[in-house]
Design brief:
Elements lengths: L17 H25 L2 H28 L11 H21 L2 H9 L4 H4 L5 H29 L10 H23 L6 H15 L12 H8 L2 H14 L5 H30 L2
Helix pairs in contact: 1-6, 2-3, 2-6, 3-6, 3-7, 3-10, 6-7, 6-11, 7-10, 7-11, 10-11
Length: 284
Amino acid sequence: MAGSKPTTPVPPLRAHPPAVSAARARKWGSFFYAEQVLRVMRNYGWSVVLYSVGQPVAYLFAMGVGLASLVDANSDSVFGGVSYLQFVAPALLVSAAVMTASGEFSYPIMDGFKWRRVFFGPHASPLVPEQIATGHIIASSLRFLLQSVVYFAVVAMFGASPGAWGWVSALVATLAALSFGLPLMAYAASITQDKGQFALVQRFIVMPLFLFSGTFFPLDTLPLAVRWIGWISPVWHGTELGRVFTYGMEENPLLTLVHVLYLLATATAGFILTRRRFVKRMGS
């Protein structure tokens, strides 16, 4: 047609040669698998968002408007001079991340190895088991961080984080989730027969950690018979760090350092064990 501009031909899309694709997979395989996990999570994205927003709103409303009005009227100094809502908010933030980790690092791992065996498809490509494990951890960590950021935003709107460094508690909650979740992921990767192990984990490990980690009252007010649960609990270590950052709880700096080292050590040990379990289960 007269006056029409000539069009530039678009070259057809072509796949990389097999050698190039294999080299890219060996280099970036963990991130490729993390992208796949995130795309799967997108299918239930609304559930993730509603869980991230609905749970903190419900808990903080109950604590801030209901229980806190009774506790604050009867105890002024038990909680370090802050309101009960400010005291309990960091614990709820960390507990929510740890509970999410108990889900992401248990049933999906059994699903990948036994129920739908979704780990073995990528393993037929140049991806190695360590990359598959790391990719799952990366994607789950992003979920923990997103959930914790949203949770902290709700906490801040309720006025429960007066400190300027309160936002760090979202990072602390993510680290606490990995500290608990990665050893659990290593255990899940070792299970070959489903005999209800995860239900036992939820009832006899996750719930005691939630209840006896100084979540609702200071740990030193609990009986010694259950106080040790808090000492070994990532929930307690993360909660104490969160209280330092959200409202400046007074604490010995050495104890603060112990909290950080404990969370890093358990997360690192869980990461190493998980990668080894994946290799043992799938081969090199």
